[in-house]
Amino acid sequence: MFELTHFIGGERASGGARFVDVFEPMTGSVIARAPLAGAREVRAAVENARAAQPGWAAMNPQRRARIFMKFLELAGREMDSLAQLLAREHGKTLADARGDIQRGLEVVEFCVAAPHLLKGGFTDSAGPGIDVYSMRQPLGVAAGITPFNFPAMIPLWMAAPAIACGNAFVLKPSERDPQTPLRLAELMIEAGLPPGVFNVVIGDKEAVDALLDDPEVKAVAFVGSSAIAEYVYARACAQGKRAQCFGAAKNHMVIMPDADMGQAVDALIGAAYGSAGERCMAISVAVPVGEETAQALIDQLAPRVESLKIGLSTDPSADFGPLISRAHLERVKTYVALGVEEGARLVVDGRDFRMQGYEDGFFMGGCLFDAVTPQMRIYKEEIFGPVLSVLRAQSYEEALALVNAHDYANGVAIFTRDGDAARDFTSRVQVGMVGVNVPIPTPLAYYTFGGWKRSAFGDLNQHGEDAFRFYTRTKTVTSRWPSGVKEGASFVIPTMS
Ligand code: NAD
C-alpha cells in the first residue's frame, strides 16, 4: 500500500487533512491511500494554472499541437502499463481498459487540429474601408470533475480541448480510481506541456465546492450522476461560470419484429453487461415490440446471460469483471431485490455469484428482469450494474412513447430491417445519441457527445467542435484604418445597408 499525491505545477504534491482508501475491486483489498484536497490544495492548483496560462496561450497553436502529438506517442508507448493500472483500480477487463484509453486518445488526436479549429472569421470590406473579423480566445483556467467509470477517456475529453484552446486545466478525477488520470497528466508534462497547465487534485465534495467557488475558474465541466450534475451546474452558473454537466442514463434498445434476433441478442449482451453495466452508454432496458418478439428475445437472451463469463481484469476470456466498490455492489443487489418486490420477473439472478479464490472481490453475475413496467423504480432509476430490464411494448408507437417519456435521454438504439421505421425513429426520438442496429452509439471524437433532458445540464456537448466553443470565447473586431475617416465623423449608428 502506498500514498498517492496530487499533481500541481508539474510536481507531485501532498496535502489535505483527510484520506480515502483506493481499492483493487477484484480482490477487495486496499491498494493505496489517497489524500482528499481541501480549499488550500485547490487554491494552489488554480493559482499554478492561472500563472501558467498566459504563457501557454501565447505559444503559437502549431507548437501547442506538437506537444499533443508527442503526448500521443508517449501514451501509445505506455498503453499496456496504463491499461493494467486502469484495469487494476477500476476492475474492467484489460481489453476494455485499452478501449477506455483509446477513446480518450482519439479526442487528443482531434485536438491536434486546434490551429484550424481556432480560426475565426474574416469579412473584407464589410463597409467602406471596414473589415470585420472574429477570434476565439481562451477563458483562462478551466476545471473538470470526472466519474469513476472512464478514468482515462473522460478526463482526456475535457483536458485535451481545454488545453488545446490555450487554457490551463485543473482536473478533479474520481477519488475511487485516480491513478490513471494522474499518470496521463504527468505524460502531458513529459511531452512538453509547461508545468501548471495541467494539474490534478484528488478530492471529493470539498474540493469540488472549492473549484466552483474559486473566481479564477472560468469554466467547469462535469460528468457523473444527475443530482450532482445539476448541483454543479447550478452552483457554477450562479457564480457566472460556464458549465457543461453530464449526468445519468437509462438507455433503451427497441427491437422491432423484423429485426435479426441473433444480431440483436449479440449486441444486447455486450451493451448491457460489458464493463459490468458501469457505462453511461450501457443498454439497461430492452423493449421488444410484440409478444412474439418478446418471447424470442427472452428465449435467446436468458441462456446467454446465464453463461456470461465473469472474471479477473487480467483474464482475456472474461466478459466483465468486478464492480467498483463494495458499497456499489450492495446498492446494485438492493435494486435487484427491489425489482422482485415490485413484481418484475427475475429470469436470471446473478446475485450469488462468487469468484473462486477472490471471495472478497466486488463480483456479481448478470441479472435479467422480464415484465418490468414503467412505474417500477428499477425502470425509472439508473442501476449502473449488470442488470437488464425487459419492458414489452405492443406496438412501435408504444415503444417510442416509452423512450420519450423517460427522464434520462443519453443514448438509445433501434434494431430493425426497415429503413422507414429507423428513419422515423431517429427523427422523433427525444434522445441525444441514437444507434440504428448499433447498440452503443458513442459518437467519434470529431462529432460531439451529449445526452438530453436529465442526462445533461448546459448547452454545448463534449468533444468535437462544441468543445472548442465551450473552452473559448469569441471576440469580434470591426476595424477601419485612418484613411477611412477622411470623410469626417458620423453621428448615426453604422449599418451595412
Ligand atoms: P458521482 O456523481 O458519484 O461522482 C462524479 C464526480 O462528482 C466525482 O468526481 C465525485 O468525487 C464528485 N462528487 C461526488 N459527490 C459529490 C457532491 N456531493 N458534490 C460535489 N461533487 C461530488 O458519479 P460516479 O459514481 O463517479 O459515476 C457514475 C455516474 O456517472 C453514473 O450516473 C453515470 O451514468 C454517469 N456518467 C455519465 C456520463 C455522461 O457522459 N452522461 C459518462 C460517464 C458516467
UniProtKB/TrEMBL annotation:
InterPro entries named in the record: Ald_DH/histidinol_DH, Ald_DH_C, Ald_DH_CS_CYS, Ald_DH_N, Aldehyde_DH_dom, MeMal-semiAld_DH
GO MF assignments: methylmalonate-semialdehyde dehydrogenase (acylating, NAD) activity
The protein's Enzyme Commission number: 1.2.1.27
Top class in the EC scheme: oxidoreductase
Domain named Aldehyde dehydrogenase: residues: 18-477
One GO-annotated biological process of the protein: L-valine catabolic process
Domain of life where this protein originates: Bacteria
UniProt entry tagged with the keyword RNA-binding: no
UniProt keyword list: NAD, Oxidoreductase
Record PANTHER family: MALONATE-SEMIALDEHYDE DEHYDROGENASE
Protein name listed in UniProt: methylmalonate-semialdehyde dehydrogenase (CoA acylating)
